[in-house]
Design goal:
The complex is a heterodimer.
Chain A: H1 2-35, H2 37-48, E1 49-54, E2 61-65, E3 68-83, H3 91-102, H4 110-114, E4 122-128, H5 130-138, E5 144-154, H6 161-164, E6 166-167, E7 173-174, H7 176-180, H8 182-186, E8 190-196, E9 202-203, E10 210-212, E11 219-225, H9 226-243, E12 247-254, E13 259-266, H10 286-289, H11 299-308, E14 317-320, E15 323-326, E16 329-332, E17 340-343, H12 344-349, H13 353-362, H14 371-384, H15 413-420, H16 429-440, E18 444-445, E19 451-455, E20 461-463, E21 470-471, H17 475-492, E22 504-514, E23 517-532, E24 537-546, H18 554-572
Parallel strand pairs in A: 2-11
Antiparallel strand pairs in A: 1-8, 2-3, 3-4, 3-5, 6-7, 8-9, 8-10, 11-19, 12-13, 12-24, 14-17, 15-16, 18-21, 19-20, 22-23, 23-24
Helix pairs in contact in A: 3-5, 9-18, 11-13, 11-17, 13-15
Chain B: H1 34-90, H2 93-97, H3 100-103
Classes of the chains: A alpha+beta, B mainly alpha.
Amino acid sequence: MNLELQKGSRSKILAAVIFGLMTIFVVRLFYLQIIQHDYYVGLANKEQIKRLTIPAKRGVIYMLDGQTPVPLVMNQTVYTVFADPQTVNDDNKIISTIQQIAGGNARGGLQALLDKKDSRYQIIATKVTRTQADKIKAEKLKGIGFQQESQRVYTEGTMAAQTLGFVDFGGIGRYGVEAKFNERLTGVDGMLQSVTDVSDVPLTIGNNNINKPADDGDNIVLSIDRNIQSHTEQALVDGLKRTGATRGSAILMDPQTGRVLAMANLPTYNPAKFNEVTEIADFNNNVVSAPYEPGSDMKTLTMATGIDKGVVSADATYVNTDQIEVGDRVISNASRGQTGTITFQHAMNWSLNTGFVTVAERLGDGSSITLEARNTMYDYFYNKFHLGQLTGIEVANEATGTIISPTSADGNAVQYATMAFGQGLDVTMVQVASAFNSIVNGGKYYKPTIIAGVIDKNGKYIADTTPEPTISVAESTANQVRQMTQIARNTNFAGVDKPGYYIGGKTGTSQVAKNGTYADDETVATYLGFGGSEETTRYVIMVQVSGDHKEFAGNYDAMPIFTDISNWMLNYLEIQPKG
Amino acid sequence: MSYQRTQNYNNRRQKNWSRNQNTVAYTSAIKLGPVAHTVLVALMITVLGLIYLTQATRATSYDYATQKIDSQIAELNTQKNDLQIENARLTALETVKSSSVASAMTTPATTDYIQQ
C-alpha cells in the first residue's frame, strides 16, 4: 500500500513537473509567437526580404533625317572597375591587364592604389565598356569587382550641343532639352521586393513580394534635321573664320509649322565631356537665352505694323533728310545720301532709320509718336509678334527679353522711335525668327517648337500635330512685307542666290549696350531672311555674329552665312527653280 | 449444392436481397490497435510534409532558372543596346563625312530638274 502510494506520488510529481515544463513552453511560445509576433516577423523580413530598385532607362533623344528619326543621345552601360587591395594577390597581372584592356580609362598610379592595404575599395578604371569588362572578367583577377552604371552617348559629338544640354554626374539634365524635359526623360524607377537567398536571388516564397516594373523615360524626337543642323554649324564655323567673330548663332525654322530645323551656337562643346568645359557661357543657347537689340531686322515688323494699320505702304513716300527729330533727340541714318522724297521700299532697301521713325509717327498723329502710336506698336510687337516674352520653346533657360510698355516711365516717344528701327528693346533670336515666320507665311504666328513627336514603347514614331496659329497681321500685309524684303535683298545682293527662287531678307547691325551706354567699339551683325518659291516660303534663317570689342555689319558678316545656308537648303529641300 | 424448396414458396423479390448484391460480408483477420493507428497517421503526415517540401524546393529551383533567364535577357539587351550605339556611331554624319567614300565625292557642275 505504501509502495503504491509512493509510486503514485512519483508519477504525480513527474506529471506535475512535465505539466509545469509544458506550461512554461506554452507560455513562452505564446509570448514569442502571439505577443511578440510582429516584432519577430519584422526581424525575419529584415533579414530575408530585400527591396531592390529597378532603375528606369533615361529616354533617348532623336533628331530627324528627312522624315526619319535617328538616335542622337543614347544610353550605354559602362562599368567602374574597383580593387580590394586587401584581397588582390597579383598586382603586376592586374596592372598590365587593366592598362592593356581599359587603356585611357584606367586611372594613373595603379600600383599606388593597390598598395593602399588599409582600404578595401579603390577605383582603378572608369567608363569601361561591356566588351572591355568581359575581357577583364575573363582574366579572373582576384580582388577585382565591377559596378554597372549608365552614361549618355552623343553619337554626333558636338552637334547641337547647346540645344541638347547634358546629364551631370548625378543623372540630372542640365541646359537644353535634357534640362527642360528632365522629368519626362528620367522616367520612374520600379521596385522589386522579395525574399532573397544569400546571393540576393529573388525567391517566390513569401506573401509580401512586390514587382513594380520601371516606367522608362519618354523617347523624344526633335524637329531638328541633322543634315540641316550639320550644314548650319559648318556654315557658322566658316563664317566666323572668315569674319574673325568669336561668337555666332543661327536658327533655321519651318515658317509653315513653327518647327525649328536647326539651332547652332559657337563656341560649342562636347556634351559627353561637359566637365572639361572651362567657359560656362559655352553651355548657353544664345538663340533663346541671350536677349539683344535686334537692330534693323525689326524694320520688317515695324513696316508690317504700319501697313496693317493702313498708314503706310511700300510705295508710299516720305521726305528723307537723313535725320529726324523726336522730342529732344535727333535720329540719323547709318546710310546717308538717299535724301529727298523716297518710298518706304527705298527706305527698306537702304535700311534708313528715318523711314521707320516716320512709320511710327504715322501710327500717331503723323508728326509725332503719340501714346496711341506707342500703344499700337506695343500691341503688335508684344501681343501679335510675341516679342519680349517667353515663346515656350522646349529648351531650358529661355529668356524673356523686354518690350518697354508705353505706360511705363521709359516708354516715351524717343524710346519707341528707336524701337521702330530695332534699338531700345531686348529680344531673343527665336522671338524675332518666329515673328518673321508670320510675315513670310501669310500672317500666321506659330509658337516655335523643337519637338516633332515621340517614339512610343513599341518603337513607333508618333508625330505631333501642328497647333493652330494666331493671326499677327493680315495676309495682304504679310505678302507686301515679304515682297519688300525680297526686293531689298535683290537690290543689295543681286547674284548671290541660286537663280529661279524667291529669296528675301533684311540685314541688322546693332549697337551693344554695356553698363547703361552703347559701346562704341562693338556691334552685333545679324541677317534675317527666307527662301523657297514665290508661292511658298520653305524656310526662315536668322544668323548673328559678334565678338568682344569687335564691330560687325549685317551685310558683310552675317549675310554671307545666310546665303551659304540658303543655297544649300534649296538643294536639300529639292525645290525646283522657276525659269 | 442443392436447393431445398420450402413449403411456402417465397418469390425472390420478396426477399431483402436481390441480384448483384453482396450477400457475404468478410471481416479482416488483421486488427490494428491504437499504436498502429498513431504510427500510420504519423507516416501519412510525414509523407504529406515531404510532398510539401519537394514542391516548395521545386518552386525555388524555378526561381533560380528564372533568375538565370533574366540575367541572359539583361545581357542580350545590353549587347543589343551596344550594337545600336555602334550602328548610330557608324551612321553618324561625322563618320560618314570623314569616310573614304565621302572624300571621293565631287560637287556636280550643274543640276537639272525634271519639269513638272
